Amino acid sequence: MPSRFLAAVAFALLAMGGASAKAQSTLCGPILQNISGPETMHVRYCLDAPSVPVILEVDGLGSFLATSGAMISGTKKSDGTPWTIGAPVKVALKGLKPGASYAYRLKRKDGSLIDQGGTFRAFKTSGDVKFGLIGDHGSGGGYENENACQMVKENLDFYSTLGDNVYNAAYETNMEAWPLLTQWLNFGCFRELHRNVPIAVVYGNHDRASVAAALFEDGGRGVINHGDMIYVRMFTYGGSVGDSADGRATRQWMEQQLVGAKDKPFKFVGSHYAAYHCDSGYIYDANMRTYWKPVWEKTGVDYVFHGHHHEVARFKANGIGYLIQGGGAGAGTPKANCIAPLVSPRTGNFGSFSVVEIVNKIMTVKQYRQSWKAGTPKVLLSSVFDQDSIDKSDTPVPPVNQAPNGTIAEPKDGISVD
After folding, report:
1. Mode of pairing for the β-strands spanning 89-94 and 40-47
2. Which of 103, 184, 210, 357 could be disulfide-bonded to 119 (CB atoms 3.0-4.6 Å)?
């Protein structure tokens, strides 16, 4: 883990040790999240002092009175270092006008500013959509920040993680993840991204449900109905991907969501574990194909977005697109055994994120690569190195770099793609 990131955590914890009854700043957030339909947006934050009255001021909507949460304390398991951080507070903004923009900020009761907040767009029931994807980015390094800096410029409606939001075994048990998780939310360009772009969280094997539920409430499973699409997210871990009670219940829930979205031209799914990828030896991929792929095929899913594998690759199987976007912390060299349509034939590491856009019922997914242009100062460049499209408009146009249709041969002996 980069030293500058750990230093940021240490600084925040030291600052909290001297917190007074008057809140000085936000320690996490504000974070935007939509989990209740297009007319509601949730704003979540935590402060550096408990039980402080807070006014959430929203232009065109009014003011909402809340308080800061209690302080949570614990001990870092790796070296016994104590930590203290604020519990999150959620404020539900209701009565939003679909597609309208709202500026908001956090203030004290005396009117002084706690946090400048940001501006977000409310979701809508139909029309064009633009959202981002980033996976396996929880190490607090340069690639993550570079991706976030570019995603800020994309004017996204929302963005979705694809799992492994926190990497660090010392913090991974229950609430021990709090210091690292909250600092990730405020890390570099993520701070601006989170206060202006709603986040849809997918959790992976390096995340923990207790932390997920505490901060994001939905526990990594949820639905976004926005514009001309439905996006269903699932929390995959261990037995949940197989024929367990939890797996069966989640598949039934997912099928109900997808079948019920009859008015949505596009259907997407987000999952950490992948059905198709370029690694070998993973025990969960066969279960994803055996138990989950039939649900996606039955319900007319257009694209499934995965993380877990630190690569960027794209496949087509039985009419469904599968995208691995695990380049949040750097996408490595693709494995040689991956001979299906592969779109990241680059050596060495590079940061990557994806953008999905629907315009006039034409969906495009683009994969971005981060690179630096030499000079003084250096310039961060973001370029598209792959894209795919699906046309559902009344006047179809030729697809852009469409991956071939057809069925990928099912893997054998633990090899992902035969």
Report:
1. antiparallel
2. 103
Q: Which of 257, 264, 226, 232 is nearest to 41 (CA)?
A: 226
Q: Residue 192 phi/psi, 5° resolution?
A: -70, -40
- Beta-ladder partners of 381: 371
* Strand 71-75 with 129-134, pairing: unpaired
Q: pLDDT by residue (tens digit) across 172-199?
A: 454 455 566 666 677 788 889 999 999 9
The CB density around residue 48, as the number of other CB atoms within 10 Å, is 24
Query: With the C-alpha atoms ordered 281, 284, 289, 291, is the resulting torsion angle positive or negative?
Result: positive
pTM as predicted: 0.85
User: Token digits for 49?
Assistant: 């002092």
Q: 10 Å Cβ neighbour count for 98? A: 16
- Of 270, 309, 58, the closest CA to residue 159 belongs to 270
pLDDT tens by residue, 129-183: 999 999 988 766 678 888 898 999 999 999 999 988 877 644 445 445 556 666 6
User: From CA 406, how far away is CA 397, in angstroms rounded?
Assistant: 20
Rg of the chain's alpha carbons, rounded to an integer? Answer: 21
Q: Are 320 and 408 in contact (CB under 8 A)?
A: no
CA-CA distance, 278 to 281, in Å (whole number)?
10
How far does CA 240 lie from the centroid of its chain?
A: 20
